[in-house]
Amino acid sequence: MKKPPQDHTTARAPESTYAFAPIAIARSPYRERFGAPHQAATIRGTRTHEGAIGSIELLPHVPIETLLHLDGFDYVWAVYVFHLNRGYRATVRPPRTPEVAHGVLATRAPHRPNPIGLSALRLERIEGRVLSVRGIDLLDGTPVLDLKPYLAYADAFPDARAGWVDAAGGSPDREREADEPWDT
After folding, report:
1. Positive or negative, the Cα torsion across 80, 83, 88, 93?
2. Could you tell me if residue 95 is inside a domain?
3. Nearest partner of 83 among 118, 116, 121, judged by Cα
4. Count of CB atoms situated within 10 Å of the CB of 84
5. Are 26 and 144 in contact (CB under 8 A)?
6. CA-based radius of gyration for the chain
7. How many domains does the chain have?
8. Residue 157 lies in a domain
9. What is residue 75's predicted lDDT score, i.e. its pLDDT?
10. CATH of the domain at 68
11. Contact 22, 138 (CB under 8 A)
């Protein structure tokens, strides 16, 4: 018997606010923004010039079974809160194009309308409730809201256009220095 069509959207208005609790805490060698990478895969400009090792520690209220079979993935997406940021501007001047203001949503500026970050981190191993990751770009103590497996077939679009970033040189070799501030 075929299930009849369902409408799950018109009967309910969107919430005006949402509350989330962290599921984990990031442990990182970075204690301050200065010197920390600004993208997980970007190491140019960092003090060590290599992807830093860090960890993500599952909090006690989250069952360890949530990690079952995650160890078979090379990368995980970490969704987290820029917990030290307050406020944002509608436009910013990224270091790559300081002469041009871009809408904050067209950039990866850390000061955003909702201070949420996303990083693809190399999963080195899982020991108990702790994920060891490489390429961490989170500050120590960053609250992690969620972890998701990275799926190359669904998450990678190598031929995708990158708008103004392509026009500015786009290459990772031209990635901004980690110590260079955003004009926000």
Report:
1. negative
2. yes
3. 116
4. 12
5. yes
6. 18
7. 1
8. no
9. 97
10. 2.40.30.70
11. no
The answer to whether position 49 is within a domain reads yes
d(CA 30, CA 43) in angstroms, rounded, equals: 13
Q: pLDDT by residue (tens digit) across 40-98? A: 555 554 455 567 899 999 999 999 999 999 999 999 999 999 999 999 999 999 888 89
Residue 36 is assigned to a structural domain of this protein: yes
- Encoded amino acid at 155, one letter: D
Look up the pTM and report it: 0.81
> For residue 162, how far is the Cα from the chain centroid?
17
* Residue-number span of the structural domain to which 118 is assigned: 24-151
Q: How far apart are CA 87 and CA 141, in angstroms?
A: 20
Mean pLDDT of the chain: 86
3-state class of 38 per DSSP? coil
Residues 88, 73 contacting (CB under 8 angstroms): no
